[in-house]
Amino acid sequence: MDITRSQFESLPSGSEALEPYRVKRAVFLAAGFGSRMAPLTLTTPKPLVRVKGTRIIDTLLDAVCAAGIEEIIVVRGYLGGQFDSLKDKYPRIEFLENPYYNEANNISSALCVGDLLQNAYVIESDLLLYNPKLITKYQYKSNYLGVPVKHTDDWCFDTNGEKIITRVKVGGDNCHHMVGISYWNRTDGAKLAGHVKQVYEAPGGKQRYWDEVALKDYIGEYAVEVRECTFDDITEIDTLDELKALDESYR
Predict the structure, then answer these.
(1) 140 CA to centre of own chain
(2) Alpha helices in 80-127 (DSSP H)
(3) Which residues 6+ apart lie within 8 Å of 29 measured at CB?
(4) What is the pLDDT of residue 144?
(5) Which of 5, 12, 47, 113, CA to CA, is 20 to 30 A from 238?
(6) Dihedral, CA atoms, 41, 44, 46, 51, nearest 10 degrees?
(7) Residue 21's pLDDT is what?
C-alpha cells in the first residue's frame, strides 16, 4: 500500500494500518577486517573495539532492541568466533557466516543475507551511535541516512527535489554525506537480493560495495530517500587516530 509521508506520520501509534511499515529485522554487516585500525584489529574485530568501555556495535544493538525489533542478524567473517560474546547481552542474535569476506568486498555479506533484506535495516557495524532515536520501529519507505553538507571528500549522495538519491559518489558539494544505516522495504529488499547476486557474479563484482548495487548499478529501479541526521547523532570510526581522538586510553 502506497501512502504519502504525511499520511504515514498521521497514523496513530498501535494502529493496524502501521503494520506494513513495521521493521522486521536488523542486519549487521560485521565481516570485514578493519585494516585502517590495525594493529588493534589484528586481535579484535572492529565492531567489538571498545570506546570508553562500550563496544562500538553495542551502541547500535541497544538502539535496535529499544525499538522493539525482534530479529537481529549479524553477518560475521574475520575473527567471527569473538562475536559469540554478544549472546550474553543480546541472546536473540542470530549469526550468518560470510565465507567470502577475505576475497570479496562487503557485497559478499549482502549476498549471504539474501531475502532477509526485506523490511530490514542494514547497518554497518563500525558506527558509533549517539542518538538511538534514529532507529525506529516503523519506516515509511526505503531510505539511507545522510548528513547534509556543503562539502565532503567521502562517500556522498546527490538527490532530487524530493530527497530521492540520484547518484552515489566519492566527494561532492552541497550533497549528503553517506552514513551506513539504511532501510529496505519489502519490495525493494526482494529486488535487491536478486540484483546483488547479479552484480556479484559479474566481472569485477566481488570488489563492489553492496549499496552501489541499488544506488548505482540499478538506480533506475529504486527510489531511495535520504533520511537526514547530523554528525552529533552518529559517527564512523575509520582509523586508529580517530579512535584515539574519542578515547584517550588508546593514546
Answers:
(1) 17
(2) 107-113
(3) 75, 106, 109, 110, 122, 123, 124, 125, 210
(4) 98
(5) 113
(6) -110
(7) 82
Please state whether the peptide bond connecting residue 39 to the residue before it is cis, i.e. omega within 30 degrees of 0: yes
**Measured between alpha carbons, how far is 57 from 54 in angstroms, rounded to an integer?**
8
Question: Which segments of 36-89 are extended strands (E)?
Answer: 50-51, 54-55, 71-76
Q: Tell me the three state secondary structure of residue 39.
A: coil
**Residues contacting residue 193 through CB under 8 Å, at least 6 positions apart:** 113, 114, 115, 117, 118
Calculate the CA 249 to chain-centre distance. Answer: 28
Q: Mean pLDDT per 10-residue run, the chain (251 residues)?
A: 67 74 95 89 94 97 97 97 97 96 95 95 97 95 97 96 95 97 96 96 95 96 97 93 92 84
Instruction: Say which residue the cell 496513530 belongs to.
Output: 12
